[in-house]
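WARN no homologs supplied; continuing
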Amino acid sequence: MQVEAAIVSAKREKPHWGARKIRERLLRRLPHAIKTPAASTIHAVLDRHGLVTSMGRRRSRAEGTPLSQGLHANDLWCTDYKGEFQLSDKRYCYPLTVTDYSSRYLLLCEALQSNREDLAFPAFDRLFHERGLPRAIRSDNGVPFASPHGLFQLSKLSVWWLRLGISIERIRPGHPQQNGRHERMHLTLKKEATRPAGANILQQQAKFDAFLEEFNHERPHEALGMKCPAEVYSTSPRPYRGIPEPHYPFHDRTVVVTSCGRLCLYNKKINLSVSLAGQAVGVKEVDHGIWLVSFMDYDLGYIDLEEKTLQPLQNPFGPKV
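OK structure emitted
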């Protein structure tokens, strides 16, 4: 806090100085025992205090977007894995489930052999082709929905959703009630479709298919006025037509993240995130040697070319995790 106060004070004294000059001023004024942060960190501090002149579009400064209301069908989908369980053949089943928040419609109940990303991708691809795209998807912070080591906990799956124009929401760790409707469906699923478990993954999928049909078309729901979910759900008006290319008209240039998650800018390599490998990001110079990095409509952080570091901004993707 002492260093942050010194940064803000120096900027107020020299309002036209950029982060690099402010850093040099701090190097001369702060005691040698206090480590002076990189210019990108200083720029991020100034930005957080509203001391950076806005350039181009306005950036969302959300510290954790509240969970949406999901008032209409396909406004919000909820997804999770029902706890894994053992089949008669001693293999484990990981049920991937998706529900529509408003109508309670069970969109997907897929018997998978693990919660690996490569199995989740085709399941969601089929679902998007069949039902269209939601406005947002809510999940917990576990894999493959989030990555504990990715920038802002982004996983390749959530990056794909963002590319499709789907907002991501994550419940707070330790607060499963924020996905309560989905969890209650899981209790019913456990009682009616896993006891006893299927002999193998194919038989278990048949049990899930039968449960999905009954849950949507036969089982009345009190919160729906005793209607069945299928009576109130309709397919999304947003068809799945592939991934549109991102455009960055307010940035200086577009750069593709390398397969190892790096940005290459003026022969400098800066670690960004493996989850963004192969994705195009926009970069814009906001101060001498300080570049803003954005993905889609979200600003990620500031690159200091001299230090070859990224200073992330506050998490723009749903609640703080």
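The first helix runs from residue 2 to 13.
OK
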